[in-house]
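Input chain follows. Return structure tokens only.
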Amino acid sequence: MKPNQETVRARWLRRGLDTHVSLPLFALLLLVAVWVVTFHEIDAEREHAQEAAADSLHEMLGTYEAQVARSLDGIDQTLRMLKYAVERKGALGALPELGRAGLLPPGVLFVVSIVDRNGVTVASNPKALPISVADQHYFQFHVERDSGATYVSPATRDAANSEWHLHFTRRLDDASGNFAGIVIVETDPAYFTSSYERSRLGERGMLGLVGADGIVRALRTGDKMSFGQRLEGMGKYSGMRELHGIGLNVLIALDEQELMAGFERQRREKLWEAVILSGVLVVATSLVWLWSWQGARTRARIEERMVHLAHHDMLTGLPNRSLISDRLDMTIAQAQRSGGSVLVAFIDLDGFKLVNDGLGHNAGDELLKVVAERMSGCLRACDTVGRFGGDEFVLLLTEPGAAVAAAPVLERVREAVLQSISLCGQEVQVSCSIGVAVYPNDGDDAETLLMNADAAMYRAKEKGKNNCQFYTREMNASIEEKLVLLEGLRNALDDGQFRLVYQPKVELHSGRVFGVEALVRWEHPEQGVIGPDRFIPLAEESGMIVALGEWILRSACAQNKAWQDAGLPPLCVSVNVSPRQFEEARLVERVRQALDDSGLAPQWLELEVTEGVIMRDLQQAVAKMAQVRAMGVSLSIDDFGTGYSSLSALKSFPISTLKIDKSFVRDLGRSSGDEAIASSIIGLAHRLRLRVIAEGVETEQQRSFLRENGCDEMQGYLFSRPLPPQQLAALLSAPAMRAA
């Protein structure tokens, strides 16, 4: 290429980089970015509006469910009193007796009637025409079956009441148990939709009751009431919940157009903002085209920002792993020259995963930002705090002198982290475990110091968390021991080193053994019996818990079937399900296969799941529990009271039992706080129609408190330690046990 050709090419290249050429292209990119961001924000706001609508629907559905349940409980109680009064005083004497006692519902809202076996109304309040209801569906329902439950008929009207009304009925039996008639409570369908609020449901929302047969009992849409029709398909924002034991469902539906009206206004505003911003950008670009130096300054600022992001954590703004390593190398080099020391503290938050899983990632991010700010406030300007990743932080204290001199700084950090934080309207408290290594005693390079500080942090975890540990050489030995144990664990299952023991579960009032909990022990060929507290966390961490859990499940089912085949009284065997097991996709299939292979009936198996596991992904957990429950297998929540579950979540769990954690049982009779918690759990469970079992019962004082406060069941050393299968069989075969 000739020199003059190279000169021309270089000149055109420089012109391409000149402002009057590059700036319009850059402006075009910015315009694209403005509209991309605008549409992205619109999509994000749409998603937020949809989530808010879903949350609002869920909240209203829960509120309406509670309101209807209270009303139905009152009606059912009236029916029970009517039935009892008829059985005592006869059909003609029942209503006067209840009226004198002030137990009849207000006649303005409810009509109470008594019908004999021939379908003739013999008494009512307020008084109404004595008509025959023998041809009515609700009368035939009780003639044909003795369900023992309240039946709710579709809306009807008759000669006694020309207005549409709902009938709540219960069967009457004579002394021989034969059909003797029914008792009725009638009310206007609008009674169950009076809580319709336009401010929340809008003009086209729906609120009402639908029977299990799909027939609408009461439905309100705006000012319009309807009933008797079959429920057709519902919209996107709708929900229905079953009212247990009465064959009714509560229904709430929201109109999507009304729900999204606010979003549509915001969308139009953002589009206008983007239009205005685009116009401003065009004008500004024209001006900047005249002042090229301004473009150069902008590029310089961007470069500075990029450098900052490369060395700092985007969430907290703290130095990241890369910058921490660089500063530690530099600090060590300075200490080598000056003969000083460097303290490296590795900090891990205790309980962060539970907060992150239970309250969501946004709450977890907010927690990390608050903790980072608190840590920074505890240090000097020459010290460094950085985020190493996840919920791990690193402190660099330059020239701390003796290790004891750094203790106050570390204690300030620990106390600052421990202060409660409000997240999503809930007070949350996390602690931290701190491990410390000091240059030059604990290592002469950054990698060694960080590794040893990490080992000290794990020792702090092992010592109960929320404490600070300085590195010692014995910590590496502990890590090596853990690795050896993990290696042995890999072969333990294949070599048949595990065995199961069974701790009896006892009914508090009768003393009868009704079930057992299967507990695993590791018979190590060299170390002897190893407790689950040592190897279960390792199995969970390594993923081996899935295979071990399946072995426990299959062995427990087979052993229970063997006891039954030997003629022992049937027992329900409980098997703990670890977090890894519960989240494993084939859990339901594994349970079904264990039952099929052992021949054990599903009602003799119970799975125990901790509430913390359920709250990680509530929707998926409830769906999986429903599949297990559908097989006939019972479910219980283990260690109840130690997690983050809410009452609204608890009532959706398909469970039969709550197990009070032993930490609340330990000080019963000595701690008023634990007594209050235990009695509250018992009362809550019973109101939700759940049974309650207390674990870790070791004293007569604990058992007495539990029995007096209505606890149903117990297990613990007071009755029996965990026993091998043969000893448990001998215990169940004892005459005293058979008599109980």
